[in-house]
Structures are given as structure tokens and as C-alpha cells.
């Protein structure tokens, strides 16, 4: 990989000293990616590669911090101290995941403030899934089992993403996500094996979260604007439909073990394909949620903006403290 130094120029193709140099840099980048070498922050990379990574990583980071809201809704009403402690730890993990991802995005020359401003202004997206409400305690289980399960299916391949800082952040995130998925499964299992009312609550949650979970993988391949290029750059390793199918194949036997039914009469094993067939996804609903018309879009973004405004004094105090101690030559202790 070609490191960007004062001799080789800056990270932008436009800034490369000549067309020849730009071609060489590009060829070297393409060869390195094809050879499964990691791209690191100081390496030369095409502007479009950098922009696409920032787009995906920002959306991912925003999803982590917005994703804290639907679950945090149940912290005060968790049915036991054990469940409350688990849920608090999980929500705290999501904040940590956001932090790793914003930090990884910063290595591409974009600041966390800039990305948050874009989120608050509606210029960057977060996952469609978090625009659905958490109506009952069982939703905490369904989010863990289905939403975190879908997230893991999507994110394990990103541990092999060509961009080093993103890939490394994903290793830790996936380890934590697998705990999240298991806590959701265990919670749903307890409800499913509980009273009739508890079982019905678990089934209702699965009925509501199943289809939105399938939408998390993004539009069908023939409508996915970025997949082909992202796969060529080894940012994505599998297409949206491939990962969605993998998730369905994993979820079907798990639903059976849980004693719950997936709300799709068309799910059946297809011997020839070696996969489960499943019913049609309501893509009109997906695009509508992306446009801001989901049940909770407005609530989620308003709550995020308010939290940001109300946290301004904490950021100011931390910055003033750091300034005071660096200007006096003393290091700030963590
Ligand atoms: N929601 O060309 P496409 C989590 C957008 S939650 C909203 O296929 P790409 C968590 C897409 O951005 C999950 N927008 O895009 C779990 C693009 O619009 P822009 C967060 C979506 O990037 C529990 C347009 O549709 N995970 O981790 O090739 C608790 C066309 O799509 C969605 C990640 O973000 C969607 N579901 O593939 C807390 C994983 N799907 O950008 C947190 C990393 C598509 O042109 N991201 N769009 O305006 C990815 O793997 C990929 O970005 C996606 C989409 C598979 C999501």
C-alpha cells in the first residue's frame, strides 16, 4: 500500500502531481485491495472509497446511538434487578459501539461533531429498524434475538473489511453483539415458557419485529445503489440478499426452539436451493421509513437533538478541563 507522505502528495486524486502518478496510486490501491491487504489511514485511497466508507460508517455509528433509545425505554420498567442490570449494560455497550465507529470514521478526516451535525440535520441516515416502537417488555427480547441477530449476520463479514480501523472496530463490536443476541434469546425463551399471557407477549413482539429485521439488510440487490462498488472495494463481502437469506436460515430453527412462530406462512425449506424460501418484503414500507415516515422517526431524532443540546455543558466542561491541563503542561489523567 502507498503511504501518503509529503513526497507522494495528499490523499486526493485531484491533488496528485500528475495524471501518471494518480494512475499509479490507483493501480497500487486496487492491487492491494485485491490482494486482501488492509488500507490504513495514512495510505492513499480514492476519494470515492473514502466518501463511501464515511457514509457507511457514519450510518452505522448513528444506528448504534439512536438504537439506545428503544431499549432505554424499558430500563425503568425491567421486571427484575437482574434484567435491569443486563439491559443497562447492553444500552451502555451501544454507546461504546458508537464511540468506536465515530473514532474509526475520524481516521478518514471527518470529525464526530461534523457527523453528528449531519445526523441532526437529517443529512445522514441511521438504520430503519430503530423507527419502530418498543411497546412491551418482550420487545427487548425480540430486539436482542432478531435485531442483534441480524446485525451480527451483517457485521461479522465487516470484520474483514478492507479498511483497517473499521474492520478492527467490528471485531470487538461483534463479540459484544453476540452477548446481546443471547440475552434476547434467553429473555424470549423465559417468556415463551412462562404463562399464557407471557407467551402471547413474546409472540406478538416477534410478529412485529420480524419483517423490519429483514429490512435491516437493505434493499434487494437489484435496487442496492452501493453494493457492487462496495463489494469490489471489499468494504462489503456479501450482497444484501445473501445476508438476508443467511439470517432467515439461522432464525427459522431458533424460532422452533423458542416455541414461537415467524409471521410468514411462506417460509419453507427449499431442498433444491438448500435454503428457506420466504415471503415478499413490503419494500414500500421500507422506503417510506427511510423518507422519515416511520412510526418513530420524529421522536427518535428529536430526542437525539435534545440529548445533544442538553449535553453541551458536559462537552464544554471536558474541553475546558483538557485545555487548562494541557496549557499548564500537566497531562489530563483519565
Ligand atoms: N436503514 O445501496 P444500499 C445495529 C440505505 S443496527 C436505513 O444497499 P449499502 C444495532 C443506504 O444507506 C444496524 N437506510 O446501501 C443493533 C443507502 O442510502 P445512502 C446498523 C438503509 O450501504 C442493535 C440506500 O439505502 N448496521 O448495529 O450498500 C442495537 C441504498 O442501500 C438501510 C450497519 O449500519 C436500512 N436498513 O448497504 C444497536 C452495518 N439499508 O447511504 C445497533 C453497516 C440501506 O446512499 N452497514 N439503507 O443515503 C451496512 O452493512 C450497509 O450500509 C447496509 C446498506 C447493508 C445497511
From TrEMBL:
One of its GO terms (molecular function) is phenylacetyl-CoA 1,2-epoxidase activity. GO terms for cellular component: cytosol. This is 1,2-phenylacetyl-CoA epoxidase, subunit A. NCBIfam families: PA_CoA_Oxy1. Keywords: Oxidoreductase. Pfam families: PaaA_PaaC (PF05138). GO terms for biological process: phenylacetate catabolic process. InterPro entries: Aromatic_CoA_ox/epox (IPR052703), Ferritin-like (IPR012347), Ferritin-like_SF (IPR009078), PaaA (IPR011881), PaaA_PaaC (IPR007814). The keyword Secreted does not apply. Its EC number is 1.14.13.149. It comes from Streptomyces lavendulae subsp. lavendulae. Transmembrane segments: none annotated.
Amino acid at each position: 500500500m502507498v503511504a501518503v507522505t509529503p513526497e507522494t502528495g495528499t490523499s486526493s486524486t485531484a491533488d496528485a502531481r500528475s495524471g501518471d502518478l494518480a494512475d499509479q496510486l490507483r493501480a497500487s490501491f486496487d492491487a492491494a485491495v485485491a490482494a486482501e491487504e488492509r488500507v490504513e489511514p495514512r495510505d492513499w485511497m480514492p476519494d470515492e472509497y473514502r466518501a463511501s466508507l464515511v457514509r457507511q460508517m457514519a450510518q452505522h455509528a448513528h444506528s448504534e446511538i439512536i438504537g439506545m433509545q428503544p431499549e432505554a425505554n424499558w430500563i425503568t420498567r425491567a421486571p427484575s434487578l437482574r434484567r435491569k442490570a443486563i439491559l443497562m449494560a447492553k444500552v451502555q455497550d451501544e454507546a461504546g459501539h458508537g464511540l468506536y465507529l465515530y473514532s474509526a470514521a475520524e481516521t478518514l478526516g471527518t470529525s464526530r461533531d461534523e457527523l453528528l451535525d449531519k445526523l441532526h440535520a437529517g443529512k445522514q441516515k441511521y438504520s430503519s429498524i430503530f423507527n419502530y416502537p418498543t411497546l412491551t417488555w418482550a420487545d427487548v427480547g425480540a430486539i436482542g434475538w432478531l435485531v442483534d441477530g441480524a446485525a451480527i449476520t451483517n457485521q461479522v463479514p465487516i470484520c474483514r473489511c478492507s479498511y483497517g480501523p473499521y474492520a478492527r472496530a467490528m471485531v470487538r463490536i461483534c463479540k459484544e453483539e453476540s452477548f446481546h443476541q443471547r440475552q434476547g434469546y434467553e429473555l424470549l425463551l423465559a417468556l415463551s415458557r412462562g404463562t399464557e399471557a407471557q407467551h402471547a407477549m413474546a409472540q406478538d413482539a416477534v410478529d412485529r419485529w420480524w419483517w423490519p429485521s429483514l429490512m435491516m439488510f437493505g434493499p434487494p440487490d437489484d435496487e442496492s445503489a452501493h453494493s457492487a462498488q462496495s463489494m469490489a472495494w471489499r468494504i462489503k463481502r456479501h450482497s444484501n440478499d445473501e445476508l438476508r437469506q443467511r439470517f432467515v436460515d439461522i432464525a427459522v430453527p431458533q424460532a422452533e426452539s423458542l416455541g414461537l412462530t415467524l409471521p410468514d406462512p411462506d417460509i419453507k425449506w427449499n431442498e433444491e436451493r438448500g435454503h428457506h424460501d420466504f415471503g415478499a418484503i413490503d419494500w414500500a414500507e421500507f422506503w417510506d421509513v427511510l423518507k422519515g415516515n416511520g412510526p418513530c422517526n420524529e421522536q427518535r431524532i428529536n430526542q437525539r437533538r435534545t440529548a445533544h443540546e442538553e449535553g453541551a455543558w458536559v462537552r464544554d466542561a471536558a474541553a475546558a478541563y483538557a485545555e487548562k491541563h494541557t496549557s499548564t503542561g500537566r497531562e489530563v489523567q483519565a
